[in-house]
Amino acid sequence: MSEPQKVRIVAFLCRWCSYAGADLAGVNRTKYLPNVFPIKVPCSARMDPELVLKAFAEGADGVLLAGCHPGDCHYLRGNYKALRRYNLLKKFVTQMGIENDRLRLEWISASEGSRYAEVVNDMTSKVQKLGPLKWRREIAIEA
Amino acid sequence: MKIGVYVCHCGTNISGVVDVQKVTEYASSLPNVAVARDYKYMCSEPGQNLIIEDIKKFGLDGVVVAACSPTMHEPTFQAAVFRAGMNPYMFQMASIREHVSWVTQDPNEATEKAKRLIEAAVFRDALQAPLEKRRIPVGQAVLVVGGGIAGIEAALKVANAGKKVYLVEKSPSIGGHMAQFDKTFPTLDCSQCILTPKMVEVARNPNVELLDYSEVKNISGHVGDFKVTVVRKPRYVDSTKCTGCGICSTKCPGKAPDEFNLGMNKRKSIYVPFPQAVPLKAVIDRDSCLYFQKNICKVCIKFCSANAIDFDQKPVERTLGVGAIVLATGFKPFDAARAPEYGYGRFTNVITSLEFERMTSASGPTAGKIVLKDGKEPKSVAIIHCVGSRNVNNNVYCSKICCMQSLKHAHLLKEHVPGVTVYNFFIDLRAAGKGYEEFYRRVMEEGTIMVRGRPAYITDVPVDASEKGKLVLVAEDTVLSSVRRYPVDMVILSVGLEASDDAKDIARTFTCSRTADGFFLEKHPKLAPVATPTAGVFIAGACQGPKDIPESVAQAAGAAAEAMSIMVKGYFELDPYLARINEELCSGCGVCLNLCPYNALERDPQTGLSKVVEELCQGCGACVAGCPSNALDLDGFKTKQVEAEMEGILA
Q1: Do the Cβ atoms of A41 and B597 come within 8 Å?
Q2: Taking CB atoms and an 8 Å cutoff, what residues of chain A touch B622?
Q3: Which of B13, B36, B231, B579 is 20 to 30 Å from B104 at the Cα level?
Q4: Once rounded to an integer, what is the mean pLDDT over residues B544-559?
């Protein structure tokens, strides 16, 4: 696989549901595209919008946020907080000229290994289509 | 900063896809890395010793292991570095098995991805700081939810070890499904005879407080200190006065389908659920009671010599403090009407396996007689395996107990009805278990006809005289490769096991997850089968997945041991992930106060700034992300640590 436009997506996975879901995809030997790199966070509510912007600035072509399904949050309501922040962030990011498909929030439970793989493949192919985000270079030029 | 990087081959699990040498070489070129090695099995003792020796030799102050998921072996390596005198939180893991080698097809891509994840871990490790686990005292009581055989067993094990148990059962009597069975396979012990002594024992044990007819409303706190709110539903009978004599039942004019006998007969509106019920106390069913529905009658009051009837009873709420919780909430039998091809509900002589259990029971609706709806004995009976199991339309999984249950029913039919012809329609016969295969052999020797094939449908339309008045099963005998018609008098559908209807609510109340089929998810399928991802909450019995009685009992004992090991130790160690406030940055705006789900943030009355209450903080980080002045940070998941990980990935 020598894609000319190889993209890198940073995935922030909550440690209770989504990280375990990603583990399950591994245990089931579900093959998926290698462009998504997981970072474990305690809860989707830990995700500071600034961290997402920082990821784009550092060169990420896409950012995936994943947490427990509504109602299943280990910390009671963390995923609702994440959803509220995400909706605002999404508006902001779009206004900054970052395409819709580059930022995504998903609910992935510990039992949804196959869903994790599906989300990874779907998001990768969409971001692949958009090509690399040239934010990093632009910011570097400005600075 | 000196970091050691260790890349595991995991046999060939990792090295079969990822070029381990290349990755190790790359790791040694990273900043702060003093040593990088690869090894066949890092988790083995020689692998761990490799790390320990290097820590001493190179004076390492950080260790990164690239191997399986941290869920699997992070504690192993944390313990190893601790043995070498390093703080366990200076260890970081890169998951290059679950997240790389097992899921990536192309070896080059996999090697690249492994490099990135290791770089991320090294960058992060360089910014990690030593942390100490928090010790919290553990309350010396256990809550057991569900009074079936698993719940009873777990409660007894804990109580006999001298600890307090609250056993909560939602129905008026404990016993669960096992109380409804007639015989148990493969020994043919009478189910009631082995269960009821345990029911009595658990109710009489001074360490057990039985909360019958009660449900858990909500729960707060955490392992060691759960606060559980339990609601006891009104029986409309004073349990302290009722003697269980049953006179009220005989006099009561109201009637409703008998739940215990699956609605095969009627019970009274005031009733004792079954003769061996524990507690042996009457209960009034509001929906059919003439007093509650029409404000008339009150016959029970007149005849109760103990003056136990109390129509004014209200639900009673109680809060219990417990250190650990065992969920044993059981299963629900598959609803046979969801397999319409077998005509359950249309043909009166098509019954479920559970209805057959009640029919063969001496205390059941037919007093132990196996009869058709017209009262005659059946001359031929077909038993269909895997109803609701092992098919994509209902449940994909195997319900595990139905093969043995069907064989048991075949045996009971032969025993109760001399000369009866019994067919067993099966897909595969799964008789794995101690004495199970022997029982299968015995049933075959008794003359049960085993047909390998799943019936397509059942019809009552005859094609010749021999089928007149019969139920005709149309099935392919896959051994003969021919479709045949089997006329019989009675059909027993061996229904599978499903997650109970309230499993979803229970999972939410206790914040434990469920697998796709609805059963509770264990912490690890092999190594932690009775633990859940929520510390201090354990699962036992069929709520975790289909299982038979011996397995449920064994699992219950396991769950009890887990609960005991937390309690006896006296304390529980919590993750050291705590929110911290930088007072120089905090403006006292108070945004964080409302974000915390545990009220772990409060305003310091003197300074007006926010303050973290460490005992309450669970380390979710919601406040950190919400703080507009970046005054909050989370130990173990500091912003700069997460950023470093990100930089490593994107380097």
Answers
A1: no
A2: 43, 45-46, 75, 78, 81
A3: B36
A4: 97
Distance CA B146, CA B555 (A): 14
Q: Which CATH number fits domain B141-232+317-324+500-567: 3.90.380.10, 3.50.50.60, 3.30.365.10, 3.90.600.10?
A: 3.50.50.60
- A50/A140 Cα distance (integer angstroms): 18
CA B179 – CA B618 distance, rounded (Å):
41
Sequence-separated (6 or more) residues with CB below 8 Å from residue B633: B579, B580, B582, B624, B639
What's the complex ipTM? Answer: 0.94
Alpha helices in B340-452 (DSSP H): 353-360, 402-416, 436-445
| Average pLDDT, integer, range B213-221 | 93
Domain positions in chain A are 9-130
Q: Collect all residues of chain B within an 8 Å Cβ-Cβ radius of residue A29.
A: 102-103
Kindly report the backbone phi and psi dihedral angles of residue B390, in degrees, each rounded to the nearest multiple of 5, phi listed first: 55, 35
Q: What is the mean pLDDT of chain A?
A: 90
Q: Does A3 touch chain B (CB under 8 A)?
A: no
Whether residue B624 and residue A23 make contact (CB cut-off 8 A), yes or no, is no
Is 80 exceeded by the pLDDT of residue B470?
A: yes
Residue B622 near chain A (CB below 8 Å): yes
Q: Is B102 on the interface with A (CB under 8 A)?
A: yes
- Going by C-alpha positions, the residue among B486, B497, B467 that lies closest to residue B382 is B486
**For residue A18, what are the contacts with CB-CB under 8 A and spacing of at least 6?**
A44, A66, A67, A68, A106, A108, A109, A116
d(CA B539, CA B557): 11
What is the Cβ-side half-sphere exposure of residue B339, based on CA atoms within 13 angstroms? 29
Distance from CA of A73 to the nearest CA of B (A): 7
Are A98 and A57 in contact by the 8 Å Cβ rule? The answer is no
The yes-or-no verdict on residue B92 having pLDDT over 90 is yes
Q: Chains A, B: CB contacts under 8 A, how many?
A: 145
> Searching chain A, which residue's CA lies closest to the CA of residue B106?
A1
Domain ranges (residues) in chain B: 3-126, 141-232+317-324+500-567, 247-303, 332-498, 579-634
Contact B104 A41 (CB under 8 A): no
Give yes or no for A13 touching B (CB within 8 A): no
B620–A111 CB contact, under 8 Å:
no
Contact criterion met (CB < 8 Å) for A29 and B620: no
Q: Looking at the structure, give the CATH architecture of the domain made up of residues B579-634.
A: 2-Layer Sandwich (3.30)
Select A9-130's CATH number: 2.60.40, 3.40.50, 3.30.360, 1.25.40. Answer: 3.40.50
- Top pLDDT among A6 and B256 is at B256
User: What is B332-498's CATH number?
Assistant: 3.50.50.60
**pLDDT reported for residue B35:** 97
Instruction: Report the CATH architecture of B3-126.
Output: 3-Layer(aba) Sandwich (3.40)
Interface test with B, best of A6, A9, A14, A27 (most B CBs within 10 A): A27
Q: Is the Cβ pair A55, B99 closer than 8 Å?
A: no
* Cβ contacts of B112 on chain A, cutoff 8 Å: 34
Q: Is B332-498 in the same CATH topology as B3-126?
A: no
Mean local confidence (pLDDT), B30-45: 96
**B119 phi/psi in degrees, rounded to 5:** -60, -45
